[in-house]
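Hi R.,

As promised on Friday, here is the backbone we talked about, encoded as structure tokens. Could you run it through your design pipeline when you get a chance and send me back a sequence?
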């Protein structure tokens, strides 16, 4: 089955297990399957990346710090906010990113950035995105 845009609308196999699985299984969003793909990509980058529902969306953590949260308002693009945790930092430090990782982000503040991924370009955005996850996590306090 295909959508008006010609993209496949076939559902991925059901996911089951933790609270994020349950949240995504119940999520009614036109990009749900792409969101699940990006989730799997994030959790595959490093072995110690965890996840939970924070701020009413799937969020990712490493070293006990939440560093990225899906922004589910867009129905045309997949968006994640990369941040440096829930606690306000006394001193905000801008993350140092490689040029390919930097190309994916729109800075919202020194310690927060929006990443927008195009469903039609996920394959070509995979390497810069995984670089971004690695680089961001490596700089968490």
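Update: got your reply. Pasting your designed sequence below so it's all in one thread:
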């Amino acid at each position: 089955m295909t959508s008006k845009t010609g993209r496949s609308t076939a559902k991925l196999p059901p996911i089951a297990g933790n609270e994020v699985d349950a949240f995504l299984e119940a999520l009614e969003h036109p990009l749900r399957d792409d969101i699940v793909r990006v989730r799997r990509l994030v959790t595959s980058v490093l072995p110690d990346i965890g996840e939970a529902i924070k701020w009413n969306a799937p969020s990712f953590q490493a070293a006990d710090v939440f560093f990225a949260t899906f922004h589910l308002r867009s129905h045309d693009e997949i968006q994640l906010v990369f941040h440096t945790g829930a606690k306000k930092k006394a001193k905000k430090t801008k993350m140092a990113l490689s040029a390919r990782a930097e190309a994916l982000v729109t800075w919202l503040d020194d310690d927060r950035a929006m990443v927008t991924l195009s469903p039609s370009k996920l394959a070509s955005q995979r390497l810069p995105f995984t670089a971004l996850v690695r680089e961001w996590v490596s700089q968490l306090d």
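One thing I noticed while checking it: The chain has four helices and six strands.

Thanks again,
M.
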